[in-house]
Specification:
heterodimer, A: 385 residues, OB fold (Dihydrolipoamide Acetyltransferase, E2P), 2 domains, 6-stranded mixed beta sheet, 22 strands, B: 304 residues, mainly alpha
C-alpha cells in the first residue's frame, strides 16, 4: 500500500531527453495505467519509479519519503516484466522463492552446501515454502511448481512472474507491458485476471502499456504520455470523452477519431468543408481541427456531408464504414450498429453528426471549448446550420 | 526382375527411391569423414597392435605387447600423471581467469576493445615464438621474472631447470595462453544474457555483485562454461609446444607429457607402433571428455 508522488521528473540518455518534467500523484490502492505510443517514455518512467534507472532531476516520493538513493529492493515495489524475466535455471518454486530468500536469508545461509549447515535456515525455508505454496494456490499454478520456465506456456510464465511479484507483499506493483507477448485471446483473459487481482489485493498498481484498450478496460485512471510528457490524466471515460489534446484524442479509441480540417470564424462559429457548424467557441479566429468519434457519425441520406464507401469492416456485432470524401486526408470512419444494413462499397452515402459530438482542437492541438447554442431548433443528427 | 538388375540389388539392401537420394547426399560428408577422421583413427589403432618402426620395410602383428610394455613403463605413468596434473591446474586457472577478465572488461566503461585485444594477443601469437620469449623471461640469471623478484628482495629461482618447478612453470604459460581464448568465449556468453534478468534480480533483492553473479550470471553462463572447460581440457591434454621448446620433458622426466612421449617414441626412437599405443590412450581421454561434455550439456546447462 503506497502513495507514489512524482515531481518534475526529468530523464535524459546521452543528451536525449526522454522524460520532460513529469508530475503525477498515484493514490494509495489505485490502478493507474501509463499509456502512450512506443518511445513516449512510459517504460522509462516506470523504471525510474522502480529505482532501476536514476532520474536526471526531479523527485520520486513513496509514502511521503524521498526514494532517491534507495535500492530497488528496499523500495519494496514488485515488478512484472514484458518478457517475464524468469530465471530459466530455477524451478517455478525457486523462481517465486527468490525474493523471499533474498530478504529472509543471510548471504551465508544462501550459500551452497554451507547454507544447509546454518541453524536458522531450516525454519526460514519452511516458512518460505508455505508462502510460495499459498501464492501458487492463489494463482492456480500449484501443479507447475517443479517445472522449469522453459516447460511452461506464455500464460503460465506470466502467472509465475505475477506470483514472484505478489509473494513478497510489496507496497506497489509495477507492470511493464506484461501482456504484450501473449496471443490476443489470452491477453483479454489475463486482462480480467489482473483486474481481479487488483480488487483482491487492493494494492497500488502501476501498469504500463501501449495498448489503449488494455488501459481503458483495466484501470481506474489512465495517464496518457506522448513525447516524454504527461498530456492527460483521468478516468478512462473522461480521457475518451474529453481529451485535452488532439494527440490524446487520436491515441485513445479504436478506430481512430475522425479529424476534419476546420476554421473558427470571426463570429465564433466553427466551419468545416464549406459548412458552418451549429457549434460556437470563444476561441479567437483561425485554423482548427474538428474531431468526431466513429460511433457519433451517423449515416443518413439527408446528411449534409457525403462521400463514397471505400472499405467495410464487419465485426459481426458492429461494423465500420470507411467513407472517402473530398476535403479529408483519411477516410471518415463511421460505426454502424446493425451490420445487416451496410452500404455497398462504391456507393455514395450521406453522413452527419450531432453538434455535441464535436471535439475541436486549435492549431497547436490544444482543446477548444465548444458550446451548442440552444435557442435554435435543429433536426437531430445535423450539426450544420 | 532379373537378379542382376542393379535396381534390384539396391532394393535388396533397402536402397530405394528416397533413401538412395539421402545416401547420395550424405556421401560427400561421409567420405570426407572417413578419409580425414575415421580412417586415420583406425590406422592409429591398428598401428598400435604392430611392431612397425618408422621407415621399416615390414611389420608384424604383436597383439597387446605395446600396451603391456607401456603399462609396465615408469616413464609412461610419469607422463600420464604430469599430463593430468597439467590439465588439473591449467583448466581451472584458465577458466577462472578467463571469466574474471571477461567480467571486468564487460563491467568496465572505456578501453573495452583495447583490453580485449591485449588479452587475446597470446592466442593469436605462435606459441613456439612465445615460448622462446618465456624462456628469456624465466632465465635464472637475466630473466625478467627473477629480476623483478630480486628487486622485491626475493630470491630468484631456476624455474625451468628445477624438477620441482618445471611443470608448474609450464602450467603458468599454459594458463597465460588459454586465458584470452576463454575470455572471448565468456564475453560472447555475457553479452547474450538478457538484461532484464539483472533488472529482475535487482528488484528481487540481489543487491551485491556476488548475489547477482550467483543468481543470474553464473547459471546463465552454464552452457558457455561447459564448452570452455571441455575445450580447455582437450587443449591442455594436447600440450606439446612449450614442452618441446623449453624443457624437452626434463629435467629427469619431471615435465614429460603424453604427446611429448608419443613424439619422442614415434619420431625420435622411430617406434611408431609404441607411439600409436600412447596416442590411443590420449584419444581415449579426449573421447571421455567429449562424451562427458555432451552428457552434461544435454541435462544440466540447457534450461529450455
Amino acid at each position: 500500500m503506497a502513495e507514489i508522488e512524482i515531481r518534475a521528473l526529468r530523464k535524459a540518455f546521452d543528451g536525449a531527453e526522454v522524460l520532460k518534467g513529469v508530475d503525477l500523484t498515484i493514490h494509495d490502492g489505485e490502478f493507474i495505467s501509463l499509456v502512450g505510443p512506443s518511445g513516449c517514455g512510459k517504460s522509462t518512467l516506470l523504471r525510474v519509479i522502480a529505482g532501476l534507472e536514476p532520474q536526471s532531476s526531479g523527485e520520486v516520493r513513496i509514502d511521503g519519503a524521498g526514494a532517491d538513493g534507495i535500492r530497488p529492493s528496499a523500495r519494496n515495489l514488485a515488478m512484472v516484466f514484458q518478457s517475464y524475466a524468469l530465471y530459466p535455471h530455477l524451478s517455478v518454486f525457486d523462481n517465486i522463492a527468490v525474493p523471499l530468500r533474498m530478504k529472509r536469508l543471510s548471504a551465508l545461509e544462501r550459500a551452497p552446501f554451507v547454507g544447509r549447515l546454518m541453524p536458522g535456515r531450516r525454519r526460514a525455508e519452511r516458512v518460505i515454502r508455505d508462502d510460495v505454496e499459498r501464492v501458487a494456490e492463489q494463482l492456480e499454478i500449484s501443479p507447475l511448481l517443479k517445472r522449469k520456465p522453459g516447460q511452461l506456456s506464455g500464460g503460465q510464465r506470466q502467472r509465475v512472474a505475477v506470483g514472484r511479484a505478489i509473494v513478497r507483499q510489496p507496497r506497489a506493483f509495477l507492470f511493464d507491458e506484461p501482456l504484450s507477448n501473449l496471443d490476443a485471446k489470452l491477453r483479454v483473459h489475463m486482462r480480467a485476471e489482473i483486474a481481479q487481482l487488483h480488487r483482491q489485493l487492493k494494492t497500488t498498481f502501476i501498469y504500463v502499456t501501449h495498448d489503449q484498450a488494455e488501459a481503458m478496460t483495466m484501470s481506474g485512471r489512465i495517464a496518457v504520455m506522448i513525447g516524454g510528457e504527461l498530456i492527460q490524466v483521468g478516468t478512462p471515460a473522461a480521457v475518451y470523452e474529453d481529451p485535452c489534446d488532439i494527440r490524446v484524442a487520436e491515441f485513445v479509441g479504436t478506430p481512430k477519431i475522425n479529424a476534419f480540417p476546420g476554421r473558427i470564424r470571426s463570429d465564433g462559429r466553427l466551419e468545416m468543408l464549406g459548412h458552418v457548424l451549429h457549434a460556437a467557441t470563444l476561441a479567437p479566429e483561425g485554423e482548427c481541427r474538428i474531431c468526431v468519434r466513429p460511433e457519433r457519425i451517423e449515416l443518413a441520406s439527408h446528411g449534409l456531408l457525403s462521400g463514397t464507401v471505400v472499405h467495410l469492416e464487419n465485426l459481426g456485432s458492429e461494423a465500420f464504414v470507411h467513407i472517402g470524401s473530398a476535403g479529408t486526408d483519411a477516410p471518415v470512419v463511421a460505426r454502424v450498429n446493425d451490420p445487416g444494413q451496410l452500404p455497398a462499397i462504391g456507393a455514395t452515402v450521406g453522413y452527419g453528426f450531432a453538434p455535441e459530438a464535436v471535439r475541436a482542437f486549435d492549431a497547436d492541438g490544444k482543446r477548444i471549448v465548444t458550446s451548442v447554442p440552444s435557442r435554435v431548433e435543429r433536426p437531430r443528427g445535423m450539426a450544420v446550420v | 526382375m532379373a537378379p542382376r538388375d542393379p535396381a534390384w540389388v539396391l532394393a535388396s539392401f533397402g536402397w530405394t527411391g528416397r533413401s538412395q537420394a539421402a545416401y547420395a547426399l550424405a556421401a560427400p560428408a561421409f567420405v570426407l569423414m572417413l578419409l580425414m577422421l575415421i580412417g586415420p583413427l583406425a590406422g592409429v589403432i591398428a598401428l598400435s597392435f604392430t611392431d612397425y618402426q618408422l621407415g621399416a620395410p615390414a611389420f608384424s602383428w604383436i597383439g597387446l605387447s605395446n600396451y603391456r610394455e607401456m603399462f609396465a613403463d615408469r616413464v609412461f605413468w610419469i607422463s600420464l600423471k604430469n599430463t593430468l596434473t597439467y590439465v588439473a591446474i591449467v583448466v581451472p586457472g584458465a577458466v577462472a581467469l578467463g571469466l574474471g577478465v571477461a567480467l571486468l572488461i564487460q563491467s568496465g566503461a572505456g578501453l573495452k576493445s583495447w583490453y580485449r585485444t591485449v588479452y587475446f594477443l597470446p592466442v593469436m601469437a605462435t606459441l613456439i615464438a612465445m615460448a622462446i620469449v618465456w624462456e628469456f623471461m624465466l632465465h635464472p640469471q637475466f630473466g625478467l621474472v627473477n629480476g623483478l623478484l630480486r628487486a622485491a628482495g626475493v630470491q630468484g629461482h631456476s624455474w625451468l631447470q628445477d624438477r620441482g618447478t618445471a611443470l608448474y612453470s609450464l602450467c603458468v604459460i599454459g594458463i597465460w595462453q588459454a586465458t584470452g581464448f576463454n575470455m572471448v568465449l565468456f564475453l560472447a556468453g555475457l553479452v547474450s544474457i538478457p538484461k532484464h534478468l539483472y533488472d529482475a534480480a535487482e528488484i528481487d533483492g540481489a543487491e551485491g555483485a556476488w548475489s547477482r553473479f550467483r543468481l543470474v550470471t553464473w547459471p546463465m553462463l552454464g552452457p558457455v562454461t561447459l564448452f570452455v572447460v571441455a575445450i580447455s581440457a582437450i587443449r591442455s591434454f594436447q600440450v606439446f609446444d612449450t614442452v618441446q621448446v623449453l624443457t624437452k620433458g626434463g629435467p629427469s622426466k619431471s615435465s614429460e607429457v603424453l604427446i611429448y612421449t608419443m613424439y619422442t617414441e614415434g619420431f625420435e626412437f622411430f617406434r611408431s607402433g609404441y607411439g600409436a599405443a600412447v596416442t590411443v590412450v590420449f584419444l581415449a581421454f579426449v573421447l571421455l571428455l567429449t562424451l562427458l561434455k555432451s552428457a552434461l550439456g544435454n541435462r544440466e546447462v540447457h534450461y529450455a
